[in-house]
């Protein structure tokens, strides 16, 4: 199997200006400031209530969440500001691919309302947004012309590709279909309705993409949870095509507890001779790289692209 490794820098935005440390506690009192007993920071008295209820770092540290992105003050920031900081909070996400500028895609994303906490620890929560490695994978498919090989086209079976954990915006699956693959997009059942709706709303752009790449496949949607027995309908789809020749997987390895279930599913999908998987991911906290040690136990090998 092959992997894509594109480490990106993550920027942090501090919304509470830090106060300067003057001449100690007495100077702090004279300046109308106090030392927070929880975090030790110097805070203006006018901001005491806001600091202790919203901004104190110890508030996040006391949380039982273990993810950095959940350990900040983001829950108290308006959705408008969140949308400026991260595309995952935009209700609509436009996408323009380099090889098809006249076929823009627009995806409807499932975002949290201002009164509801977006919880990425819920199994299907992250399936509602477009993740950037998906775009990298889509461009790579075209750059390397990863359409079906001649052997796949002449063995009497329809060449099949499968997108694992496709999410609501499986751009690489669209591209694979436009390159001639019959693509099955798979994810948890809760995610698939929005994925289908987005495909239908982008059908004209998909047709234009097929014209630009000179081929046309098809896109289907069926459930496939990592590590579980394949649902009957999904298994029949795969078997009717003699297995899959290409597996696409974007940003599915950032949680270490999902590594083994994903490896189990990959090992079953990649039993077709000559099949390969393209795994796109962003390095966040090094959990991603641990995945490639896990797959060694399932007779899978990887190499960077």
Structure description:
With 305 residues, the protein is of the alpha/beta class. The protein folds into two domains: 25-72, no CATH class; 124-304, Vaccinia Virus protein VP39 (Rossmann fold, 3-Layer(aba) Sandwich), CATH 3.40.50.150. Helix content is 32%, strand content 16%. The chain has twelve helices and eleven strands. The strands form three sheets. It has a seven-stranded parallel beta sheet with strand order 8-7-6-9-10-1-11, sandwiched between helices. Strand 2 (33-35) and strand 3 form a beta hairpin. Helix 5 (132-143) packs parallel to helix 7 (171-178) and helix 7 (171-178) packs across helix 9. The model is unreliable at 1-31, 63-74 and 113-124 (pLDDT under 50). Residues 27-57 form the C2HC zinc finger plants domain. InterPro entries: Methyltransf_16, SAM-dependent_MTases_sf, Znf-C2HC_3. This is C2HC zinc finger plants domain-containing protein.
Name the features.
two-stranded antiparallel ribbon, alpha/beta, Rossmann fold, 11 strands, disordered N terminus, seven-stranded parallel β-sheet, globular, 305 residues
Task: Please sum up the structure shown.
This protein is α/β, with parallel strands linked by helices and 305 residues long. The protein has twelve helices and eleven strands.
């Amino acid at each position: 199997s092959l992997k894509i490794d594109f480490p990106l820098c993550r920027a942090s935005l501090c919304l509470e200006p830090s106060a300067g440390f003057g001449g100690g506690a007495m100077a702090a009192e004279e300046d109308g400031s106090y030392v927070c007993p929880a975090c030790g920071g110097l805070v203006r008295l006018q901001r005491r209530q806001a600091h202790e209820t919203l901004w104190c770092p110890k508030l996040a540290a006391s949380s039982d969440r273990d993810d950095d992105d959940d350990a900040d003050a983001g829950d108290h920031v308006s959705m408008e500001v969140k949308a400026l900081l991260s595309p995952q909070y935009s209700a609509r996400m436009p996408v323009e691919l380099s090889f098809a500028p006249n076929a823009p895609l627009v995806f409807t994303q499932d975002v949290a309302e201002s009164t509801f906490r977006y919880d990425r620890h819920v199994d299907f929560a992250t399936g509602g947004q477009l993740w950037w490695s998906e775009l990298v994978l889509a461009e790579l498919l075209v750059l390397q012309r990863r359409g079906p090989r001649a052997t796949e086209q002449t063995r009497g079976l329809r060449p099949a590709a499968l997108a694992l954990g496709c999410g609501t915006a499986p751009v690489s699956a669209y591209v694979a279909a436009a390159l001639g693959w019959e693509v099955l997009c798979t994810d948890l059942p809760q995610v698939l309705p929005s994925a289908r709706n987005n495909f239908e709303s982008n059908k004209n752009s998909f047709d234009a993409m097929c014209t630009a790449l000179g081929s046309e496949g098809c896109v289907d949607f069926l459930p496939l949870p990592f590590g579980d027995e394949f649902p009957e309908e999904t298994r029949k789809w795969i078997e009717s095509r003699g297995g899959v020749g290409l597996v696409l997987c974007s940003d599915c390895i950032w949680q270490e507890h999902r590594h083994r279930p994903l490896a189990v599913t990959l090992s079953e999908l990649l039993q077709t001779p000559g099949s390969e998987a393209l795994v796109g991911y962003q390095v966040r906290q090094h959990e991603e790289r641990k995945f490639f040690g896990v797959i060694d136990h399932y007779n899978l090998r990887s190499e960077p692209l």
